[in-house]
Amino acid sequence: MVYLKNFYFASGIAEDLYLNDIQRTCYDSFYPFMILPQKGIDEIEFKDVTILYGGNGSGKSTMLNIIAEKIGAERMAPYNRSNFYEDYLGYCDLDYINAQMEEKLIITSDDIFDYMLDIRRLNEGIDTKREERLEEYLDYKYSSYQLKSIDDIEELRKRNAAKSKTQSKYIRETLLDNVREYSNGESAFKYFTSKIKENGIYLLDEPENSLSPEMQLELVNFLEQSVRAFRCQFIIATHSPFILSLKNALVYDLDKEPAGPNDWHKLKNVQAYYRFFMDRREEFEN
């Protein structure tokens, strides 16, 4: 589903602003005005899946953040701004085909890392409370308890529950035993599946971080299903060959001069993988 059709960057006006008395001696950067003109790209046309590809420093994350801010996408983690960011956004423009999306969200690597840290803190808390739960279980299991009033019913229920369970089962159930079942990659994948819902625009900044190749392929499958079944639109910044291979994705190559659409299998990063494996193909055949 295409909600956002076109986005127009404020390229080409940085020099005018500089000459029209915006220059201040205390500023040594006009970010993001001076980034995108170097790429020669003023406009992006979107499909169901649009990918911004490029090496480090190519501007793909900057472009993604600009689009996210202009459309008012919800975001969790902060990002780099500058004194001229709001001015820049004011000169950008966009076209919607269907503005009836239910959600606009940007998901960054920092969001994923923060989520995994939360899981780690929760697990640390579980370790701290494990001994407390063991003592609680032994008390419930083997001590006698008399019901004295209606207020004691809940306490009696807990004690009866403990008597009907093994020690390990009681501790697992009271400590959210499912938390520890996921690796970092599985937790990252779970974050995407929990955040991406129906009828939304989702901007993903390098979603391959923390994901193994197998998990990246699972994410690709999930994103393709979300486009087909849940009417989602995705704008993705990545250099992962797995993410780049998303079906029918429109890929903008920011490493080209000027930047513009390119076939995913012709991209510099993907060609490097291809040459690497082709040079070693005999090892795979043995």
Structure, described:
Residues 46-277 form the AAA+ ATPase domain. The strands form two sheets. A six-stranded mixed sheet has the order 5-6-7-3-8-9, sandwiched between helices. 46% of the residues lie in helices and 14% in strands. It is an alpha/beta fold and 286 residues long. It folds into two domains: 4-111 and 198-285, Rossmann fold; 117-181, no CATH class. Mean pLDDT is 80; it is low at 176-180. α4 packs across α6 (167-174) and α7 (184-195) packs parallel to α8. β8 (250-253) and β9 form a beta hairpin. The protein has eleven helices and nine strands.
SSE topology:
Layout: E1 4-8, H1 14-22, E2 43-45, E3 49-53, H2 60-71, H3 85-91, E4 93-96, E5 103-107, H4 109-142, H5 153-163, H6 167-174, H7 184-195, E6 200-205, H8 213-230, E7 233-238, H9 241-244, E8 250-253, E9 260-261, H10 268-279, H11 281-285
Parallel strand pairs: 3-7, 3-8, 5-6, 6-7
Antiparallel strand pairs: 1-2, 1-4, 8-9
Helix pairs in contact: 4-5, 4-6, 4-7, 7-8
Domain AAA+ ATPase: 46-277
Pfam families: AAA_15
InterPro entries: AAA+_ATPase, AAA_GajA/Old/RecF-like, Bact_Antivir_Def_Nuclease, P-loop_NTPase
Question: Characteristics of this structure?
Answer:
Rossmann fold, elongated, three-stranded antiparallel sheet, P-loop_NTPase, 2 domains, AAA_GajA/Old/RecF-like, 286 residues
